[in-house]
Amino acid sequence: MRNSYYPKRVVVFSVPGAPAPWHVHTRWSKSASKSRLKTYQELIRIVASGAMAGRHPHDGPVTMEIEFFRPIPKSAPRGAAARQKWVDKHTLMAPDLSNYNKGAEDALNGVVYVDDSCVVGLQTYKDYTEGEGETRFVINLL
Fold it and tell me: Which of 16, 45, 75, 109 gives a 20 to 30 Å CA spacing to 56?
């Protein structure tokens, strides 16, 4: 393990609801995706603040594991085999995993860590799930 001599503190939390990817927005754009991203980031901040339990944002190195689970849309096939085939195909499609990461990392600025430049390691995953979706975080404050 890298930097194992640091005392390790872990912050673990889960944010309910569908994750929203980061998009390039112009100052004139009023798109629904921009609004959805802002709402999603605010929810991350609220849940992360609770998980931090009153601690100040960390100013040292941070590693993170993030899992993004998107809800399977109602238009997906109902049969188990056809549904799994649909999930396997659509998991590889947009939005890109890096866009989910960017939005989530930005939301944690000033809450869990001082700035997202503190993130020295990142492991992420995206998939579909039954239900409303969620985003799971495991953050190691090194």
Answer: 16
Question: Between the CA of residue 11 and those of 22, 54, 64, 69, 105, what are the distances in Å?
Answer: 23, 12, 9, 19, 14
Burial class (CB in 10 A: 0-12, 13-18, 19+), 12: exposed
Mode of pairing for the β-strands spanning 62-71 and 134-141: antiparallel
- Are residues 67 and 136 in contact, defined by beta-carbon separation less than 8 angstroms? yes
Domain containing 42: what range? 9-141
pTM: 0.85
Query: What are φ and ψ of residue 34, in 5° steps?
Result: -65, -45
**Number of folded domains that form the chain:** 1
Task: Note the pLDDT tens digit of each residue in 27-75.
Answer: 555 555 688 899 999 999 999 999 999 999 999 999 999 999 999 989 8
Q: Minimal CA–CA distance to 142: which of 122, 126, 119?
A: 119
If residue 138 lies in a helix (H) or strand (E), which one and from where to where? strand 134-141
Neighbours of 29 (CB within 10 A): 10
- Whether residue 76 lies inside any domain: the answer is yes
